[in-house]
Amino acid sequence: MLKKLAIIFVAVFGVLLALPTINPNLPHPSWIQPIQLGLDLKGGAQLLLEVDTNTMMREKTVQLYEDVRSSLMNRDKGMIRVSNLRNVDGVVSFVVRDEDNVSAVRGRLRSELGDSVDIEIDGRNVSVFYSQKARDELVQDALARSIEIVRRRIDALGTKEPSIQSQGGKYILVQLPGDDNPERIKELIGQTAKMTFHLVNSNITAEQLASGQAPQGTEFLPYRGVPGQLVPVYSRVEVSGESLKDAQAGFDATNSVTPVVSTVFDSTGARRFAKLTTEHVNEQFAIVLDGEVLSAPVIREPIPGGRGQISGGFANLNEAEELAVLLRSGALPAPLQVIEERTVGAGLGADTIAAGKVASLVGVIFIMIFMIICYRGFGVIASFVLLVNLAMIIGITALLGGVLTLPGIAGIVLTLGMAVDANILPFERIRDEIRAGSTPLRAVEAGFHRSMKAVLDGNLTNLICSLVLFQFGAGPIRGFAVTLSIGVLTTLFTCVSLSKLIIDWYMHGKNKKIGYVKVK
């Protein structure tokens, strides 16, 4: 009895999940929502982004140059004199002045830089560069982090049901159903939001700035909001934006109309920020975002609390809020380039939905007619179970937060066609048992029992195929795989457990005549 109640509960619950999709005006709990439509059905925008891994690797090599330089100039371990230290085409190279120090150079660099770099030595000439394994890992990590950061930025804007996934190794596919104006999102996604803190090189003269030729270890960066003004900053990063824990937009406490962004660092960032502001009192430092100086204040006193404030000349509070969103979501590990943009109109999606409804309805009607003609009373039961199966597919897809696409509709139609097979197999086994002389009750039991292996084998094979499609496919293929996977599971439930339960009730524990069987 408990098993029967569980079957009924699951079937009723699955149908209830589909009611908001069938009729959104019906009252329903807030946790039961209509199924969300994909880009091809609802309309919206699609962006294909490319992760600029070449730029990322150039930046990594600059950091590698600084790490090599710091390692060689380490006073605690003893400075190693070198010449011609440079960074060319991703390779940091230098010449060791004293040949006796060559082996010490290798040991020190290996201990401090680890296995991520290859070290080649030719006499006193040393070359350091990232290994191929490290490069591949950096690219994969950059792609994964970029997807997560893009997701957080889009979610922060309140965009509903975005689809964000990797494609082709270094591409990100972003689908925004219902959004026909993606310009603001493109602008937000395109910003790397890499914030760093640098000391300002106060020894640079106006003539050097005018020439544009920065000395080694210094960069001339533009001052945001001040055309033509350059700020000389040391290339060395004192504090990285990766240590940023929170950023909130607001107004300056001393000037209630000036928008600012308040920042909070984690423990590591707070310690570095306190060290920076303690050791360089009365010196100027620059807050740099994506290669532009937001502000360059003078450090008046140590700031030990890990809290700061950015006043980058924001025109209004909205600009400050957008910067806060970027900083909270984190810096992109590599720039993103929009290489393809596509907009789908809602009218086209409505036509697709209508065509999908007609295809599904026609398919279901023909299947039901076929089942009723061939199996009469059992055909009516199979038709009812088929409708429950359809409702459960829709309801479970909505409950799991799945998005219905045109390939998803194709998966539903295909599932309904395959569900017929899960009914026909036991029905035909019942027919064989009746012909062999079994009573109707025994024929029903034997028919379902003996056909179970074939039903399970066929559906599990389909489930494995759909899971493989989901794992290795992308975009529309995944939509097809999701509905097909859910459909296989609901088919096994409805066409085996639920169908058997209803037939048992239909028989009422008696050897009723099964009208569709003709015993010869």
Report the average pLDDT across residues. 81
Q: Treating each run of at least 4 consecutive H or I residues as one helix, how many helices?
A: 13
* CA(first)-CA(last) distance: 38 Å
Count of strand segments: 19
Please tell me how large the radius of gyration is: 33 Å
The helix content, as a percent range, equals: 40-55%
**Describe the biggest sheet?**
4 strands, antiparallel
Instruction: Report strand %.
Output: 15-25%
Shape: elongated
Structural class: alpha+beta
Spatial order of the strands forming the largest sheet: 7-8-2-18
Which residues sit in consecutive blocks of at least 5 with pLDDT less than 50? none
Function: Part of the Sec protein translocase complex. Interacts with the SecYEG preprotein conducting channel. SecDF uses the proton motive force (PMF) to complete protein translocation after the ATP-dependent function of SecA.
Family: Belongs to the SecD/SecF family. SecD subfamily.
InterPro entries: SecD, SecD/SecF_arch_bac, SecD/SecF_CS, SecD_1st, SecD_SecF_C, SecD_SecF_C_bact, SecDF_P1_head
Protein name: Protein translocase subunit SecD
Explain what this protein looks like in three dimensions.
The chain has 520 residues and is an alpha+beta fold. It is built from 13 helices and 19 strands. The longest helix has 54 residues, at 346-399.
Which helices and strands, and how do they pair?
Layout: H1 2-22, E1 36-37, H2 39-42, E2 44-51, H3 53-72, E3 82-88, E4 91-96, H4 102-113, E5 117-122, E6 125-130, H5 132-156, E7 163-167, E8 171-177, H6 183-190, E9 195-199, H7 206-211, E10 218-222, E11 230-234, E12 239-240, E13 244-251, E14 259-265, H8 267-279, E15 285-289, E16 292-295, E17 307-310, H9 317-329, E18 336-344, H10 346-399, E19 403-404, H11 406-435, H12 440-472, H13 476-507
